[in-house]
Amino acid sequence: MPNFYAKKILANGSFCLSPSEDWWLSPIYSWTGACKSIKKYDLEYDSDGNPTIASCQKNNFAWYYNSPEALTLFRAIYNNDFGMKDAYTNYWAVVSKRLSSNKYVLGYDPFNEPLFSFKGFSELLYELTFGHFDSTELAPLYTKFFDKY
After folding, report:
1. What angle do CA 34, 20, 119 make, to 5 degrees?
2. What angle do CA 137, 86, 149 make, to 5 degrees?
3. How far from the centroid of its chain's Cα atoms is residue 123's Cα?
4. Contact 149, 97 (CB under 8 A)
5. Residue 25: inside a domain, yes or no?
6. Which is nearest to 57 in space by CA: 41, 77, 78, 74?
7. Enclosing domain of residue 80
8. Is residue 76 part of a domain?
9. How far apart (Å, rounded) are the C-alpha atoms in residues 110 and 87?
10. By the 8 A CB rule, do 68 and 115 touch?
11. Is the distance from CB of 20 to CB of 26 less than 8 angstroms?
């Protein structure tokens, strides 16, 4: 997915639970390492402003999923903020059309390693309840993908 979409979303700010909940949870975040911004990982950046692959590989990739930036980007796709779900769906429609005649492509996953996303602590608890994330966020997203292509 082109990174200009991510830059557009993140220019409006990022958060883990919600801006107010992040504020009062900041001591816990600091103590546990939760909700650590990508900017605090001491990464090297390329000329386009993206962290380099080599510097990203210095840390366990799973920690980046816990960043406010990653959570905000997943949230933008699920909630169609700035038309992200539509743009992502259209992107995969173009990719699937281009690859559909390639006899070496057996299939692909349009949303590898999805992360649940939430707006606040109560929504986090709801999403963690068995099956809610799959039924309320992921299944509708995959349905939109597959209906498009």
Report:
1. 70
2. 90
3. 17
4. yes
5. yes
6. 41
7. 3-102+112-148
8. yes
9. 13
10. no
11. no
> What's the chain's length in residues?
149
Q: Is residue 107 part of a domain?
A: no
- Block residue for tokens 């650590």: 36
Digitized pLDDT (tens) for each residue of the chain, 149 residues in all: 678 899 999 999 999 989 999 999 999 999 998 999 999 999 999 999 899 999 999 999 888 998 999 999 999 999 999 999 999 899 888 988 999 899 998 888 888 888 877 777 777 777 777 788 888 888 888 898 888 77
For the packed helices 68-79 and 84-99, what is the interaxial angle rounded to 10 degrees? 80
**CA 101/CA 64 separation, integer angstroms:** 35
Query: Is 97 inside any structural domain?
Result: yes
> Tell me, what amino acid is at 48?
D
pTM greater than 0.90: no
How many domains is the chain built from? 1
